[in-house]
Amino acid sequence: MEHYDLSREELQGMLTQLEQALINHQQWYAAMMRSVTCKLPSDLCDLSPEAHQHCGFGQWYYSEATEKLRDYPGFIALGEVHKLMHQLAAKLLIDSQAGTLINSSDYDNFSNALERMRLEISALEHELENLLYNHDSLTGAITRFGILPAFREQQALIKRGVQSCCIVMMDLDNFKAINDNRGHLAGDRVLKASVRYMIEHLRPYDKIFRYGGEEFLLLMQHIELAACYDMVERLREGLASMSINLGEEKPIHITASFGVVLLDPDVPVEISIDRADKAMYSAKAAGRNCVRLEDSATQNASAQ
């Protein structure tokens, strides 16, 4: 599930579906436990090997859930534990109807599977809410409200010697001209395509934040300054070579300027962000479409 492919309406719809499926699951659980406790006849569907497909939750999972959830790891894990829970529930129902004393380990296994399922549901719900409320609706980048918490968390890891971390300020070159000459809809498409390219070519644990307008902030974990420079240089080259189709006769190309610094654990994160910003402006001053390290910005400032 790629968050930049999902609209706010789609995310809200997924959450609504999940909430209803959870209600259906709770209703099934209450009825199942009533049958076990009171030794009432079981629903034959609950004794079937395909019980996980017949319950209300299963009907949503296998038929009604949006296709964009299908390949998401959390969704797949939820299906696996849901199926296991039904297999264990069937054992309890069979023993109850037969008048057999339910084995404590069978009950514990069912309870553990039930709890795992609830955790998977909660995790999936949290992920969808995070995408809905904490990501820029146009580009899919994380909103700037997430910058300080994420950076301060990384600072703590750096202080403990767990990792080094770099931050990168990225600004699309001559973006105002696109808005002025081609319109804001074209500008929106350029923003979305540019961030999509970055997300697809960053490492899974790197993060991109929309800092403002056409300016973005990258959090690059587990990397030293020189290696980060090389990675950002490859990203810059790839972005510059990308064609963006605006529905016109000829696609357009966009470039970006980048400033790269180490995240300093001993100063407020705002200072490190400011240093990255100055390095990025050094790249602008050097002719745009290039990458500059903090040292380059410092040297340029000293020379002026």
UniProtKB/TrEMBL annotation:
It is an enzyme of class 2 (transferase). SMART domains: GGDEF. GO terms for cellular component: plasma membrane. It catalyses: 2 GTP = 3',3'-c-di-GMP + 2 diphosphate. Residues 107-134 form a coiled coil. InterPro entries: Chemoreceptor_zinc-bind_dom, Diguanylate_Cyclase, GGDEF_dom, Nucleotide_cyclase, Rev_trsase/Diguanyl_cyclase. The keyword Coiled coil applies. This is diguanylate cyclase. Residues 163-296 form the GGDEF domain. Keywords: Coiled coil. GO terms for biological process: cell adhesion involved in single-species biofilm formation; negative regulation of bacterial-type flagellum-dependent cell motility. One of its GO terms (molecular function) is diguanylate cyclase activity. CDD domains: GGDEF (cd01949). Its EC number is 2.7.7.65.
